Structures are given as structure tokens and as C-alpha cells.
Amino acid sequence: MTTQSEGGGRGRGPLPACILMTGDFNCHSREWDPSVPHHRTTAILLLDTAARLGLELTLPVNPGPTFLSHNVELRGSVIDLVFIKTSESLVQPRWLLEWQGPSDHIPLASKFSLPSELEDFKRVSIAKGSDVEMQFVEQLIGGIRGIRLETPTTIAEVDAMAQAVADVFSKAWSDNATEKRITHRSEPWWNDTCSESLLQYRDDKTPENWSIFRKATRAAKHKFFDAKIEEIAKTN
Amino acid sequence: MEWVKGQKLPPCKAIQYNGQPCHTMPELWDTLHNTYNSAADRPCDLSVLNELPDLPAQEWVPFSALELMEVLAACSSLSSPGPDHITWVHLKKIIAEPQCLNVFIKLANACLTVGRWPKHFKESVSVIIPKPGKPSYSAPKAFRPIALLNTLGKLIEKMLSNRIQHDMIAYDIVDPNQFGGICQRSTKDAGLYLTHLVHTGWA
Q1: pLDDT confidence of residue A125
Q2: E strands, A117-219, where?
């Protein structure tokens, strides 16, 4: 069983509400399988649990068994169920027979929309100690130098001067900052050398390039954690 | 503590507010805003200030370049910036240029002589930090908000604070129970004061 709320990690917001619960439940009931005569406690509990999570059972467009045992003497049954958020439950799942292969389960596909909070976490930043940061500081210095140096004597003049400084700051930031995507696989120690060597390895997949990539990541980790240790040792 | 392996995450649960879990950004905003700013509109009686005797006005010397540089040198390079993204490191590099330093000094002095605190200095970002060691993180009170103000405004505030430190104590303006923002007073003193009260209760 997979649920949406099991995901999440570093850099993620609050856990969102459950959207999808699906899998092989090994549970029989006449509610989803017409060939079963009963509707017992487990099935009732399953429906109750789903309802408490705000999910609703949706049956495939074409009814019929989704589990067909390799033993041809056993009859098929419906045990693969899809529970979707109540507001989305109008979209029915469908069979993907062409994807089945040698499996005894028929793959099911259903469409639903993800809430916007689940989209990738993006952030604009300037890397510390990078060339871009030097450019940024140079632009700041140049901009502030360009502000007319008069002693402000009225409220409007003070506001204007502060605004001029603020404009220089925001202009330099928007000119230099770049957008970064942060996922749960992002590592704080990752740097440009790692990306370059990884791309190189992906190009030809040679063992030499793999060892270059491993060396680059190891060096990056060393550098990052040495700096971290230094920082912790020196402050406080 | 392992350096490279993933840290065990605290037990995760959506933040609850009025018994309801918050799943969307607007809900979360309402929850945090209403919790942390619940005292925002509370009426405040300022008449106590009227009872304070007026002291004779003192002479004010404009801020000097040295003052600004000394204050800035004491600022941590690791501190997070405000909404303008200018860190103390950036400011330190900017004031290395005498012309830029002059702009900042002029602005700081003008703020005081004119009596105006520009909008840019009041802008802040609130960051919500989980308090360590809580058994559950489903209540908004398990988190602590910190406001990150723009650093240039903070720099001028720090210069001002340095100037009034001595007078503040000399004229007995601060409450003896206040420990924040005063030189030579820290949270340790607050803790010591509390334990002293407890001990005197035992005696």
C-alpha cells in the first residue's frame, strides 16, 4: 500500500492531505467483485478507513477481475483497488493490458491532479563565495556610489535616499540571483564540479569517468564538512 | 552524531489548529499568524510614560565612520539576511569603499536629525523554526518564529543602541527584569535571577 503522506523530507512544507491510496489489498467483497457473495468486516473496515482519510473507492471503467492467477484452474478476482480523494473520484481508472507482461495482476492507471504545494520547491539564491557573489557585491558598490551625496533634511528626502539604497540592493539581487530547485535528493555539499563530472560520466559511462565523479563528490563532501566543522568550532 | 547519513526526522504530523489539521498554505498562514500575532491588536496603556520626569535634552554628536565600522565588525558573518538578501559580509565589503561608507553615514544621521525611520528598514521575513526536543510537532507552539530585518536598518539600530547603553543604565530607564538588548546582561543572568528567587523561597 502506498499513500501520499508517507513522502516528504527535507525542505518540504507540512504534510498534505492524502490524495491516493492504491495497491493489492488482498481483500474480497461484493462491493467491488460481483462474484463474491459477502461483504465482511475487513472490507467494511477498509472502506471506513478510506472514508476517514477523505478517500473514495473508484472502480475501473471496464469491470472484471484484475488478478488472474497463473494457475488456470483458479478463477480471477478483484483485489487491486484505487481510492482517490473524494473530489477527484469521478475519473475512473482504466486497464493497461499492454503493460501487463508476465504479471498475474493487470496494471491500472488513473488520472488526478496534485495540489500546488507538492510541486518542486524553488528558491532564488547566490552561492556563498562564488564568482556570482563577487559580481553581486561589485554591482552593489557601483550602485551605491552612484547615489547623490546630499544631506537629506526633510522626511521625503530621507525616504528617497533609503529607497535609492533599497533599489540598488534589489536590482543587484534580481540581476545576479539564480533559481534553484530543491528536492529531497538535493545534498548541501553538492557543487558545480560534481555536476560536471556526473554529466561527463552519463555521456560515455566509462569506469574512469565514474571514478572521477566519485572523487569529485568525495572532495566536495570533505570541503563542505571541513568548513562546517570550522564554523562550529570558531563560533560560540 | 552521524555526519553523512540521513538524520532521523521527528515524528511528522500536520500542524493542528482549533482541532483541524492544516494542509494548504493559506490555512498554515492563518494558523501561524493567529498564534504568533495574537497580541497584535491588544490595547496598550501608555499613560505610565507620562509619569516619567522629563530630563534635560542632551547634545547629539553625529555618527562617525569609525562607529559604523566598529559596530559592523562585531556582526556575525554567518547571520541570515533580511528580505533584501544583503548579509553582513556584503555590507562589510560595501563599506570598504569610502564613498559607500559615506552614503550610509549620511543616511543614518539624517534618520535621526529628521526623525524618520524609512520603510526599507522595517521590512522583515519571519522564519518558523522547530523548537528542539518536543514530543510532538503538531502544535504551532512547538515552533518559534524569528523576524529577520533588513541588515542596513539593523546596523543603524545597533549604532544607536551603543550610544544609549550607558545613559539607559545611568538614568535607570530600563526595568531591572529586562535582560534583552543590554550590554553585560544575558539569558544566563535571567536564569540565575530565577534560581535565586527559588532558593530564597526555600530558605
Answers
A1: 87
A2: 121-125, 178-182
